[in-house]
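Here's what a typical entry looks like (Fused MFS/spermidine synthase):
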Amino acid sequence: MNTTPQTAVNSTLSPVILFAGTLFVSAMLMFVLQPMFGKLLLPLLGGTPAVWNTCMVFYQTILFGGYGYAHWLSSRSGQQRQIQIHTALLIFSLFALPVALPDDANPPTEGNPTFWLIWTLFLSIGLPFFVVSATAPLLQKWFSHLGHHSSEDPYYLYAASNAGSLLALLSYPFLLEPNIGLADQRLFWSMGYGLLCILIIICAVALWCGLPEPVTGEAPEEQAEQLAEPPFPQQLHWLALAFVPSSLLLGLTQYISTDIAAVPLLWILPLTLYLLSFILVFSKWADRIHPGMLALQPAVLLIFIAYSFINPALLPYWLDLILHCLAFFLAIMVCHGELAKLRPHTQHLTRFYLVMSFAGMLGGLFNTFVAPFAFNAVYEYPIMIVAALFLRPGFFKGRWYLQAIFPGLLLLAGLALYLSNDALFDYLDIIGGALILLAGLTYSVRQGPLGLGSLTAVILIFSLGLHSLASSTLYQERTFFGVLSVRDTVIGDENQRPEKVRELYHGTTKHGAQRLTAANLTTPLTYYSRPGPIGQLFAEFDAENQHWNIGAVGLGAGALACYAKPQQHWRFYEIDPLIVDVAKDPKWFHYLERCKPDADMIIGDARLSLQKEPDQGFDLLIMDAFSSDAVPTHLLTREAMQLYFSKLKDDGILAFHITNRHLALKKVLADHAESLRLSGLLQEFKPENPPPLVVATDWVVIAKQTQRLDRLRQSRLGHWQKLPLTFDLQPWTDDFTHIIGIWK
């Protein structure tokens, strides 16, 4: 028998509107704070995408703590005691406002900065975020005791909470970020938090007024009939259904932001789909939506595997992105749909949310702490794609174990072929075609989760192995800053003898290459070739640069070092110690060893390192910092430009490498040059009939005086032109960056 008080709440304000509105505000604050603080921390760690994933681990961990607090409070204390304790916590948390980074926030330059980042987040926003995290389960539990006619099933309030989260996420990149600087964002968030505290206290008053008189010796759940706790296997099922989407969320986010830019717009896309799934599965349409998601997932999976894993080069990036997002959305809709179907009675509401948040935290911990040490590439993403298929309903239906026989035989046959044949490289096209046929078979086994997941796993294993074989990977390692690999390739055509070339990749983007013939070991290639813009710069100033002091941000394979002269002093700034180790090791590359072995290597974020350098010390500063194909945005702000020119001599030159598939970075630099009254030239180098490994590349050179660059513009070495005028671009500053205005 349920004896929840049926007394109407004495309030002119509908309790549904009050509680839903408070949850809405709470969710908005939570999901504005996440991208805002992630963006605030990016400049301290080189703008790497791993910053956001680490932030997500912190957010999920504090969310779990907030849900645990709500569960403990509601299960161990009566409603009046809950109100007293939570009100005291609200008042105490106000002392943490306004939210801001600690004054001494300096990341370590050696080792993995993950723990430093989490500790900094804890000091900055730990307590307010904890309070916001506890709001959803605690207020839903309070609402279940109000006596409202919908109090028996308050789970629909979770949809209202996620609607607020979704609105906040969409508002951030399209409304808040383009119009409000970070300093004002932090101020407005702190004001919003104060409003939330007031709303929570009003909800507490509404609950207090509707409570019956307490009975001496009464249990925390006043005279309520105690239902048996959900069995442990069911709670494990909840855990799995929430763990896999959480891990998939971070895997997809890393995939997106690695090749474009580590910015809130691209962090928010997967998170928006993630929250949308919760809104849909806890809505009144869930029973009609779920069967459709189950039917669509295998169909999209077939296309997804065939193009995004077996033949990724066939699709343009935007179409591949859509395919990844669609496959991700269907996978989490199936998992979250099953999770919503298994939700318990409201008596165990906080336990349900506690398990969900614990699973979310585990997903983040797996991606951030376990996967980088267990895998040398981002393998957790395909692993979770397979795990989501195993979680489809009906796993143990019929003779389920027979479903794994065919995939198992395929795997054994493939491994036997690999071990027995050294000429597999000659049959890559045939193997790729066979994998596409196998992808088609996945749809025929869609009714069996074990068969579908096992066959997909085999295809992904073969696909990843095929790409590794085709790329001739010699070395691969993963750090906080991304996946670094050294590969061999062969160049030459019908008129040339085949020649082996060593290449350096960061993520999916080539960061340097070296020809291995003795005559070409010191020849700069790719973006740094002698016919290219940076080669033209050194050639034009060859007569006067004998004693130049040169700084280069970004090391790569070290090709720039082969422009060095004996009396020049070179200093490289590199954030990832592994890149320094690889570039210095003659087993992989010879540029540094042969051209400038005495060059200084400064480990750490370039801006933080340059601030320590003496003013007016450099004759030339080369900006070549990339994370895969993304230039860290904090190296492109007005304050960054002012820093660079404070470190350059009056006749010094800034050379900026801006080659990018997605963003027109020349607009940002042109705006800075105009506003700071600098002179700039651009060359979008597109060689005709180029020699091997001389590639198209874009460079900008900037100086304080126009005449300093006149000789470069008038030279016949290349086609230098003035930077384009910009009229509609809001200046990029440390307080404001936004990539939509420069999207190609």
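The longest strand covers residues 482-491.

More examples are in the samples folder.
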